[in-house]
């Protein structure tokens, strides 16, 4: 069994908790795109783990974790996270953590270029995490990137750094910054590469063997559908493909080996960084945004930026469901809406007076959208920690059903709090079969 987990909105839907719940049913948990721009918070008892690069499965000692070829890895950030996890009592060894030899490395100059690129864009900046993600992917697709396997060959690494830095420094200097030094970068990266060596693996071969042994594999998407470089709200996106198709490429697994796609959908929407967000709570709804932000703790787990908050967007989420082929959906953060009198759901868009029910490609159109809302009654009671669907207030059940109908996918799991056991798994759902 190979399942892909993908955020359906603009990220931060609560994938970390769901992956953590599923992880001990799976032998292998892997990431296939992105880098340490991700931030999954997982709460276990009184311990909080923040994962950036490592798959959430790392918390389960039985799981083997993989960083796939589609990722961009900052070796310094990688070891900071490994050391942090180790200090929190998690054992991390090359036996249980594999890093693809084909993944690309984020270099110090990629971080500098992320800053200059945002500066250059001025008012049209993307609002990136400034981790060097975009510039590292630019080098990958420009065929001048440095892969994990290259970094293990000293003379190759040295030559690649010199070449990469020559170009990067031109831009860095143009923006009035100090040029970076290739000898310093080489010294830093070669030492980190040596430390990385035991973890390096031909991961697609590892997956092929695992498949033969009927191992269960969970592919964990980072960021989310609407941040996908092809299918998201371009150019306000990340530089990789979090969507289901990206999982096959980014992990090196044949598409037909993937048995299911699980969407993570939150009961409302958020977005960090710039870019269109049709259902954003603005102006008159600012108090509502503050309430949701505070109840849902909607601050970036990596950057601590306050997240923009908005109503559930059924048009965008249905688009995500169809694009990824969700077989089932985990609905997160139901309890955050407990305090609301009324809840709005966007069921259609209007652009220049015309109704549309599809998700537009053009960012100018996206910015012009007037959402068409349906308003549902809130349930005004505490759902925190409820574990059975029949114990939810009737209005909460109606809300869940409304969302499921409007996106056309079953909801197989409902999260009623950050802890593992604050979860409802619906009987006879596709989701239930993944938990067996
Ligand atoms: P980058 O991935 O750092 O290049 O940032 C590109 C866009 O994706 C920005 O709007 C970021 O805020 C957003 N982004 C990147 N990673 C995440 C994430 O894990 N959650 C939510 N937004 C993200």
Multimer state: single chain
Instruction: Please identify, by name, the CATH architecture of the largest domain.
Output: Alpha-Beta Complex
Bound molecules: inosinic acid
Strand runs, count:
20
Strand order of the largest sheet: 9-7-5-2-10-1-11-15-19-20
Description of the molecule:
- With 436 residues, the protein is of the alpha/beta class.
- It has three domains: 2-100 and 203-261, 3-Layer(aba) Sandwich (Adenylosuccinate Synthetase, Chain A, domain 1); 104-196, Adenylosuccinate Synthetase, subunit A, domain 2; 264-434, Adenylosuccinate Synthetase, Chain A, domain 3, CATH 3.90.170.
- It is built from 14 helices and 20 strands.
- The protein has helices at residues 15-23, 75-87, 108-121, 133-141, 148-151, 154-174, 182-196, 203-212, 244-251, 286-295, 314-324, 363-368, 394-407, 430-434; strands spanning 2-7, 28-31, 40-44, 47-51, 64-67, 72-73, 97-100, 104-105, 200-201, 217-220, 260-266, 269-271, 308-310, 312-313, 328-332, 342-351, 354-356, 370-377, 411-415, 423-425.
- The strands form five sheets. It has a ten-stranded mixed beta sheet, sandwiched between helices. Strands 14, 16, 17 and 18 form a four-stranded mixed beta sheet that branches.
- β16 and β17 (354-356) form a beta hairpin.
- The longest helix is centred in the middle third of the chain and has 21 residues, at 154-174.
- The structure holds inosinic acid (IMP).
- Residues 11-12, 37-39, 126-129, 131, 133-134, 222-223, 227, 236, 238-239, 272-273 line the site of inosinic acid.
- Inosinic acid binds at residues 11-12, 37-39, 126-129, 131, 133-134, 222-223, 227, 236, 238-239, 272-273.
